[in-house]
Amino acid sequence: MKKYIEVEEARELILGDLERPLSAEKVDLLAALGRIICEDVEADRDLPPADNSAMDGYGLRAVDTESASPEQPLRLPVVADIPAGKPWPGRVAAEEAVRIMTGAPIPPGVDAVIRREFVEELDGLIILKEPVEPGNDIRRAGEDIKAGAVVVAAGTRISPAAIGMLAAVGMPYVAVVRRPRVAVLATGDEIVDFNQVPGPGAIRNSNSFSLAALVLQAGALPQIFPITRDQPELIRRALLDAVSGSDLVLTSGGVSMGDYDFIQDVIRDLPAAEIRFWQVRMKPGKPLLYSRVSATPVIGLPGNPVSTMVSFEQFVRPLLKKMAGYPESELLLKKELATVLADLPATGERRHYARGIAERDQTGKLTVKLTGAQGSGILNSMVKGNCLIIQPPVAAGAHKDSIVEIEWLDY
Ligand code: AMP
Ligand code: MG
Question: Are the beta carbons of 355 and 382 closer than 8 angstroms?
């Protein structure tokens, strides 16, 4: 077991243990939104399937219109009406035109379309006052996608546009990486359910809910377990239960140095368990425990409500994304530089993730200020904050107007 390591090393250990994303599952097309697709999808046909009109107007032969001018308007008979979806079986001869709607297939003989608003139609004739270029307002077969081309590549995160494209190539189901199932387990003798009136010394369980919400937001499936009391045997049973049906187990509380912090002892004694590290050089969030039980990652998050959430952002969100098949480049929170609006206090021996409110003004300048008090129990700092301000360890503190690095918490 490693002890008291840097955030980056901790994250590398956690991510490095996961060899590959979770398995694939077939889902309805719409349910694939935001998921990572596991297969290349090819177009079954050209898109559009045939040359068609880009406008409501008239199809004709461009060469016939070369002499058209306001002084010598050209008159062409309209020989057919072609709505979208109804290919016309005929052929357009020289000095003829067809009325054609947007999306309707271009009939043989036609090599240009002129928009309705540029001509007059009178007694079955159109009157043209200017020449039309060959190819004008015609969309070519396959100009969007050629038959056989990969329209959505394996590993892509499915966007609304990709959903549309998959529909266009006739995919009612797609294979995507399945969602991680995440057990969320709060521990503590003082913790009561959120629908209880806490007695003396008790507090309501907020961690299970902030964590389950973060899990949901990360695209995974949370399962909230009953609150477990600070007794090794109860913790042992709850952990084994949680491990058996989950891809990841998150506990909160009971991983610090206290007399009733039993998570580490319990995991150490489980069969097929390995504790990989304990404690990270960060504030909040030092007492984090990472272990594997029968190859399932079990992450013991600190009990303080802010520590739990900040630790989730640094370690759990990237792991869930990796499980769900996201590429390496998309695992971490987005970073940016911002100007601090007020002095920041000096830091101690740990990197500090202060909660900040970042704002961009009309000129694009990004500023950030603290949310207020920064204790690891001040959940309100996470409610108000939209970013974490990263303060290096043993730093003198940042002066007003200096540049700091932030990590965005809004996704
Ligand atoms: P612990 O790490 O178990 O000593 O907990 C640290 C602090 O976090 C204590 O003040 C706990 O009361 C608080 N805490 C632990 N679990 C929860 C929870 N599920 N919801 C809210 N606060 C919690
Ligand atoms: Mg506790």
Answer: yes
